[in-house]
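Why do we care about 3D structure at all? Because function follows from shape, and shape follows, mostly, from sequence. That is the central idea of this module. The next example makes it concrete: a single protein chain, its amino acid sequence, and then its structure expressed as tokens.
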Amino acid sequence: METKDTVLLEARNLSKRFGATCALLSADLELRSGQVHALMGENGAGKTTMVKMLVGALQPDSGEILLEGKRLSNRSVRDAVAAGIVPVYQHSTLFPELSIAENLRAFDVASTSLPRLHRGAADLAPYLDAAARIGIDLDPAKPVRMLSMAERQLLEIVRAVARNCKLLLLDEPTAALNVQEALRLFDVIERLKEEGKGIIFISHKLNEISEICDVVTVLRDGRTVMNAAATATLTHRDIIHAMVGPVSARTDTALHDAGGPCLEVSGLACGGAFQDMSLSVRRGEIVGIAGLIGSGALEAGEVLGGAREATQGTIKLDGKEIAGRSRRYFKQQGVGLVPADRTADGIFPGLSCAANAAASAYDAIQTGAFLSRQAEYDASNMLFTALRVRPGDPDLPIGALSGGNQQKLVIIRNLLVPDMKLLVVLEPTRGVDVHARDAIHSAIIDAASKGVAVIVASSDLEEVMALAHRICLMRNGRLARTFPRGADPAELLACMGESDSPSRELHHAHA
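And the structure:
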């Protein structure tokens, strides 16, 4: 059993750059034994980079990580696991077609000889002992495919504890669990605390943070802005304020008056991401859909842009139903979509800047089976200038541009959608500098001034407040409330932090 309430892990002044992007800048974290430590931050805050450093998957450019006072030089995940730092990721690493016993033995495959994997029940003793200590019954012969998601997650925790884990890293552990399963996981976490294990708990669910975590560390823009603050002293609003930063009602930019109806959404749902969404957007109107990670805001934007299929409800554009169709069909109906992740979903890495910019307009600018380079240039030239793309050479490969200029090209491509009626923009300025941010905001407002209906879905509350005529705030997969332009930022933050989920106390009271 570990000694409780001593400093277990320290991350000091961690910094990491990827080209021109600074992912972490002098970030810190301190974890004590017998403590559940929440690590929070919005997308792009630096959480993933820090976690990869802790588990040995990335090396910091500067700074150090100490485990029990000794500096770690993890060159691999294997080294980190050997030192006692074990991650349990959101997506299972188990082999579904193998038995529980085979999965437990496979955990040692990299450090033992093949014959040893089949020596029998004696090899399972450490795992069965670990399971018993944290209150889990295992049937070694049972195939993993027959386990629920919660049982698979607990099995991964058993593997970690049996490996003499000192620090357990849980990445979104309840993302696929129902309330009952989450409560069972919380009971296991409490037992691990009693054993003196240190636990880093990554979640966007504020009610869970208040329920299970002792302290909270928040990263924003690669920096630690809240370091090991006691959860008991924090409100949800305090945590959100640390995550999103100072929010002011930036409504100084004049917006044009909206026109007639354009988009009508009724009873829209998408699996477990969000449900029962109804809203309307007029021509020339900018509607913000805001919410923390996991609120359903970005998933709603993907459905409205045609990148994700709705499971229920209707979407009508100029009175014509378009729900249930492909992204290609949405584009043909005049719907532009700027995805949240430009690198994975927004750019064509092997093509030039001009080709990337004009890709949505090919049907309009090609002649027969031919497409001229001059036509590509002509289609996007004015927008290159308007958005101040740098460098301005359309022949350059898009990979030669900074992230902010790549984002401008993704915006340009969607502004060139023929006969555009609706523009859906997800996280429009994530990871870009202030100059690119201003240019992108101007382009969005300009599109609306020409009669295009615009939806901006973002976790950046200040950005949504600066752009939108009105703000639809998502929480726990539902449209919680709509705010007008100029609403009190404190009121929006309070609404974002309200919880609809039951606590363990409520659960036990009704059990």
